[in-house]
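Title: Prediction job returns without error message
Component: structure pipeline
Severity: low
Priority: P3
Assignee: unassigned

Description:
Job completed but the reporter wants confirmation the result is attached to the right record. Sequence as submitted:
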Amino acid sequence: MKRGRFDYDDLLPFPLKTVPHPKGALRVYEIPDSEKEAVLRKLYIFRPVPSLDAEMEDIHEEKKFRVRDFIVVREGRSNILASPYYPDSGGTVIDWRPLDI
């Protein structure tokens, strides 16, 4: 990922894959592991930005996940930082609860 500044909703420089979903196909970025931290720092809306190894809970699913397992979904002209459970219940970054406190 380029180090230059981009707006939150700019198209990211990664391929998009289409994932089937009951409410319509989702477009999910294929982000290499080596770029995950940079993407997290750009799209995470709270401070401080958690470590990729931090544990969170998706409050909709009531399931744990490691931050490194996040996904970014492209919806319309927006990038949505989400838990890996987003396709099941719609948990975005605002629905993450830290467990490493």
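Comment from assignee: result matches the submitted record. The chain has two helices and seven strands.
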